[in-house]
Design a protein that fits this description.
By secondary structure, this protein is α+β, with helices and mostly antiparallel strands. It folds into two domains: 134 residues, Beta-Lactamase, CATH 3.30.450; 149 residues, Alpha-Beta Plaits, CATH 3.30.70. The protein contains eleven helices and twelve strands. A five-stranded antiparallel β-sheet has the order 2-1-5-4-3. Strands 7-8-6-11-12 form a five-stranded mixed β-sheet, with helices on both faces. It binds guanosine-5'-triphosphate. The site of guanosine-5'-triphosphate has 17 residues, from β6, α8 and α9. Its EC number is 2.7.7.65.
């Protein structure tokens, strides 16, 4: 209510303020303590399809039955009782009102993302008599952030992946091995490392060509993926050298895995230029032990076992001496 001393100038100002609020590019809802709508602006009218004349005096939760009632009532109640502003970002709740995006065709989201601010408002007597709900359309910001996050994820994947085989590349695989080493140091749980290398691959490349060699590397990677468990971590360690970290696996269990892998690779065939190509691998297996200095040391021990397999005629699996 306006005071009895309200002048024509005051009325003009009020009228102008009301026009301004109508043209705001944000939603504005004024609620009383019983969650009844006192007024809302044209943003709310346009997006909800409900005219202010139909909304005034109605309960907000009757107008929008899909609002998160318990959560929003708590927010509104505390704005009244604590007399302080409250915020909610799209990252916590993508939206309060299920409004469609204003750019469903050019934008990436069919629905509007919203930030919400709740502001307690005092009447002329100084007491809080309503709460203003401000709704900001942040669809552009939200979708851009999501696009950026998804591009970062893709970049991260690319930076970790070996292009030829699709396995982890050496850098990332070694990082995983280092993590596993530290985990074993803390937990004292078993873990095993398998390193293996294609036999006579130089001769193979010289005989069949580098492209045929690449095809074989892909076939070996497929064999690893078929053999490994989801918790195992495989990577291309070097040109024709591969690594497999087997968490929660003892040496004897890892030997079984390694032998199965060796046999799978030996049995795999690659058809190339009307020729059936096959390769074998030599494998070194080393279990984690407290005597290892670091993950590099673990690699060295596995590499020695792999060297023994080469020395022993290749196409076999060895453990450290
Ligand atoms: N086709 C292909 N060959 C590669 C790739 N990376 C490394 N190589 C080849 O792998 C061969 C490795 O040869 P060596 O290290 O001498 O070992 P090897 O001939 O396999 O002999 P042993 O390991 O002792 O059995 C080299 O000829 C490399 O060129 C690759 O991405 N594609």
């Amino acid at each position: 209510m306006l005071s009895p001393t309200t002048t024509g100038n005051d009325m003009d100002s009020l009228h102008q303020v009301m026009q301004l609020l109508q043209t705001l590019d944000n939603g504005l809802v004024l609620l009383d303590a019983d969650y009844n709508v006192q007024m809302w602006n044209s943003f709310m009218e346009n997006h909800s399809g409900i005219a202010i004349s139909d909304a005034r005096g109605k309960n907000l939760f009757d107008l929008f039955p899909d609002l998160p009632k318990t959560w929003l009532r708590r927010k509104i109640d505390s704005a009244f009782s604590l007399q302080s502003r409250a915020f909610c970002t799209w990252e916590e709740h993508p939206r309060l009102f299920n409004f469609k995006s204003t750019r469903p065709l050019t934008g990436r989201s069919a629905m509007m993302y919203q930030n919400i601010t709740l502001i307690p408002l005092t009447g002329l007597n100084g007491a809080i008599n309503s709460v203003c709900l401000l709704v900001y359309d942040v669809t552009e910001i939200a979708t851009r952030k999501q696009d950026l996050e998804s591009a970062n994820k893709t970049l991260q994947k690319i930076s970790r992946t070996d292009k030829l085989t699709g396995l982890y590349n050496r850098g990332y695989w070694e990082e995983c091995l280092e993590q596993e080493f530290k985990r074993c140091q803390r937990s004292k749980r078993p873990s095993a490392l398998i390193l293996f290398d294609i036999d006579h691959f130089k001769t193979f490349n010289d005989t069949h060509g580098h492209t045929a060699g690449d095809e074989v590397l892909r076939a070996v990677a497929r064999a690893i993926k078929e053999t490994q468990r989801s918790t195992d971590i495989s990577g291309r360690y070097g040109g024709e050298e591969f690594g497999l970290v087997l968490p929660e696996t003892t040496q004897s269990q890892a030997m079984l895995v390694a032998e199965r892998l060796r046999e799978t690779i030996a049995a795999a065939t690659v058809e190339w230029d009307s020729t059936t190509l096959q390769v074998t691998v030599s494998i070194g297996v080393a279990e984690y032990s407290d005597s290892l200095k670091d993950h590099q040391n673990w690699l060295e021990v596995s590499d020695k076992a792999l060297y023994r397999a080469k020395e022993d005629g290749r196409n076999c699996t060895k453990v450290p001496e």
